[in-house]
Fold this sequence. Notes:
This protein is an alpha/beta fold and 272 residues long. It is 36% helix and 24% strand.
Amino acid sequence: MSYDLVIRDGTIVTASDVTKADLGIRDGRIVTIADHISGGQSVIDASGLLVMPGGIDAHCHLDQPQAPGLASKGATMADGFRSGSISAAFGGTTTIVPFCVQHRGESLTAAAADYHSRADGQSVIDYAFHLIVSDPSPAVLGQELPALIRRGHTSIKVYMTYDAMVLSDRQILDVFETARREKAVMLIHAENHEIIGWLAERLEQDGRTKPLGHAHSRPMPVEREATHRAMTLAEIAGVPLVIVHVSGGDPLDEIRRARARGHVVIAETCPQ
């Protein structure tokens, strides 16, 4: 058998085993794992190295402009798809899933097209997009979102806070309902918007405006309550839910209780 590439004498790490072996690749796919593979148009000596599947970063933000009306209007993420994907590749990540943001008043379809144009010809690794819905209008829920899901955008994110992104519980239910009907997965940023605003006002009144004040405006009950509410909404709508960047034991306890009741809830953490 001929191979385009042979990776020789590495320690191969799979989901179930760690073993020293050679690995044969043809047409971009692994076709053979054996003690010794001869030949190969190209050969990589992986002696003393681990040979692992590429990582998938399912939560990153690249070339993302800020929402109109924010203090940071006009700002964009420091990393574009070129620099971000090269950095990912150097770290062993071969697939990224950044977010495609619909800002209020914008078409979700147009937002998706814009992000595809930003990534086209720039990314050196595989990529997909989560859709962020900030304006669930009848046109978005009835036409645009179902069409995009059927085209392969099968994960959708909504926010429970941030002035430019926050949705009401009823709006969240509307998006959840569409996701359930179209068999998509929901992601949610779970923090109580009203509590954050109430605390932030009092911190500002006290002159506590240094970066540490950001943490003080978001004590753990803010995330705990929103996590519980998000899962309750998902339970009512009957949709799988991913709670993004879970940051403490309290919300994790809520997630464990929901999972024990049989609900499909995934807790994501952000190691950074």
